[in-house]
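Contributing new complexes? Match this layout with adenosine-5'-triphosphate.
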Amino acid sequence: MSLLDVRNLQTHFRTRGGVNRAVEGVSFHVDAGETLAIVGESGCGKSVTSMSIMRLLPENAARSAGEILLNGRNLLDLSEAQMRDVRGNEIGMIFQEPMTSLNPVLTVGAQVKETVALHQSIPSADVHDRALRMLELVGIPDAARRMTEYPHQLSGGMRQRIMIALALVCQPKLLIADEPTTALDVTIQAQILELLRDIQREQGTSIILITHDLGVVAEATDRTVVMYAGRKIEEAPTATLLAAPRHPYTQGLLAAVPRLGGDGSGRLAEIPGQVPDMRKPMTGCAFANRCAQATDFCRAHAPALERKAPGHIAACHLAEPEILA
Amino acid sequence: MLKLAFKRILMTVPVMFLVALLVFSLLYLAPGDPAVVFAGDQATPEQIEMTRQRMGLDQPFVQRFGTWLLNLAQGDLGTSLISNVPVAKLIGQRLEPTLSLTLLTLVWSALVAIPLAILAAWKRGSLIDRGVMLLGVAGFSIPIFVLAYILSYVFALELRWLPVQGYKPLSDGLWPWFRSLIMPAAALGAGYVALISRIGRTALVEIMQQDYIRTAKSKGANPRIVLFRHALKNAAVPISTVIGLGVGLLIGGAVVTETVFALPGVGRLTADAILRRDYPVIQGVVLLFSFSYMLINLAVDLLYPIFDPRIRY
Ligand SMILES: Nc1ncnc2c1ncn2[C@@H]1O[C@H](COP(=O)(O)OP(=O)(O)OP(=O)(O)O)[C@@H](O)[C@H]1O
Ligand SMILES: [Mg+2]
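Output block (do not edit by hand):
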């Protein structure tokens, strides 16, 4: 059984212009100890997917449909109080902006300790020790003194380490990292990724790594889900996906990257054309209007996800399955 | 830290000087002639001219201002044209009712407005939120004297629970003192409560959208912890700011309130002095009001670093 199994997740928003189908039937799973990448252009629904798992959607979101099974338990069926026990305890989360994600008026020590205190009834001295050890683990030098400092006294990289500490101090089995390195400069980026990898090895944490950066995908993830317009359109082991992408959208993303890894320039470049309006009903392939190879058939019939090679699925009429011996 | 706070205090000195200059020159712009007032109704033009010279009103502006400032620095605010009593003494006699009224109003308003703001922000868009909003609009738009008359009609004339008018000093006992201030403080505080709860609600609602609130929720914090531990402390700066700035409202309102409820305070003194064109008294009270306002806001400023560690002087 997978640690996390998301089945046919749908999350819609009520907006003035109609219902925005931000996530429209996404399924994926995360195994214990693995790192799953979710990539895709801005607005394709990556953050909405992760906030759906945490059940921390904005007020105008309708209740998510589908199933989100964490160790077989459907998070969508839990009460809000039960869900609070999951957040920070079974699933930790870190965000893009380490500057604004920490509370400016609380000391970093208090913010790390809070996660412990929320989930464990242990003496406050023990809470303190746990927090201190976690800060040391994430590589905060002089951690005891740093605990009494405020976020504005720390650098961006240090702040992201604090975020990691407060997300992982209760040793959750799953960490959702929504663009954890996007706001940091390249050398710090590499350090943070390495830190995540170290903690993963030590604690056996599974990670969902949401990113724009194919360099990060190549370097740090086992399997990759590609999203487009609220749908999963391709999934494969990361090495396979990068070497032999089957969906024209993924091919476009990769072609737009000059060179993977290293210099940190592996950002998604523009693919010409417009992302479809997710408030309008869609017929045919969501990517058809931007796809150079699209046929009338593509425009009329939505492609289903099909197995194209072992462990490799894609939603494209044009991608022929590999002939298996 | 202390040294920087001291610097911040020093910075108010030029402002105080400007205020003094403004207060002094206001009387130049105001209609009427102090000499005419002082000489009395039956005075001949010669008597008025003599009075003018005796009062030093024939001297140039700068010289008069200089003399006035010098006296001011020694605590001499001049002498009333009408009663011939030193202004400082007049004000001193009237200080207790005004301090009682404004402090009581400040305390009850803050104690009511802050929970209202929290409630409205927490239940945003609900009936409670709209109720608080409505109360706010009402509090802003009903003039103090109208509210005062409604209150005294209901609670003093009809129900006979409270005295219609008048002030009981603290020396008469805590309860009589408090009873004499209930209606004045209620009338004076309505607009203040409206102001604080409105600004407080807006600040809290904005804070609740911040990334760090999302972080708190993602750790598993319940709504109570999110609101009180994470949001409220961030709202302390805007809320204390509006409390400080709103003191201006209280001071202006005290003049009206004291007049309606016949409280023998500085506000009444002001109203009477204006009616009788008693210039030294007007100058004295306006100066007192301005300085109190500045001092309160200075105190609020000095509190900021306690609320928000990013602010340092
Ligand atoms: N509160 C909301 N109300 C309405 N629509 C929303 C809301 N939040 C997100 N959306 C929509 O959901 C879609 C997916 O947004 P999401 O934030 O998940 O994108 P993303 O893939 O994370 O993009 P990025 O890479 O820019 O972070 C977008 O079309 C966005 O407009
Ligand atoms: Mg996002």
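Reviewers usually confirm one structural detail per submission. For this one: The interface with chain B takes residues 54, 56, 81, 84-89, 92-93, 95, 97, 100-106, 114-115, 118-119, 150, 152, 163, 166-167 of chain A (CB under 8 Å).
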